[in-house]
Amino acid sequence: MDNEKLQINLAPGMSKAELVIREGAAPKELEPKAPVKTNLKGVIGAVVEYLKKRINAGQFEQKDCLVLVNRESIEITLITNEADEYKRGEITGKLSYNPKFIEFGINSGKVWTPTELGLFIKMNRAFFADRNENMKLVSSLMNFTADVNNKIERAVKENGNRTDNFAQVVNSNLPESFTIQMPIFKGMQPETIEVETFAQVNGREVAFVLLSPGAQVTLEDLRDKVIDEQLEQIREIAPEIAIIEV
Description:
The chain is about 35% helix and about 20% strand. It contains 7 helices and 8 strands. Strand 3 and strand 4 form a beta hairpin. Helix 5 (about 145-160) packs across helix 6 (about 160-175). It is elongated and about 105 Å long. The model has no long low-confidence stretch (mean pLDDT about 85).
């Protein structure tokens, strides 16, 4: 550097400047850093919204991206810069169940005692279109044990078979079904759901599970409809991105 000339241009009004030359490695804050990888999770429309805002930003090429579709878990995942571990990113959109639908335990195998189910239904009256239906169901459940025992005592005197009469009384003591109105998935419109009560008898103990074939059909139809709508938008925005069902 002995034969090289260093020229410094001063701003107007400045007469001198200080030049500091450091030897050795640059400070850590000046060292080049790896880019922050994209790792986003959101609602089912997250991938479409991300593509709308980033497709022309030069952050990735369509041919280097991949969309994975999992209908079972109701997820759509966009992988950008798939082959470049340094720049690879993931954006996942998921359709989530309505928390209250999960609480009811419909089609999940959740087991309720009569009292537990009665109290739960009483506190969730808002999901019943018919208030009287709710009150009648709550009353039947809360008085279930005493009512069943009284009927069994009468039936035993008449027919003599305690076990058979117990099962018969249990099966006839509650309405076969009731109707609620609620969204199955978060952020969607309420659905009318017919729920059937099934008794599980173990000796003198009775518990209930809630089943709804109609809710299962609606769930599958909604799931496929929502996913197909999202995939259609993805194809319109980024037709070169491969879409794979997993």
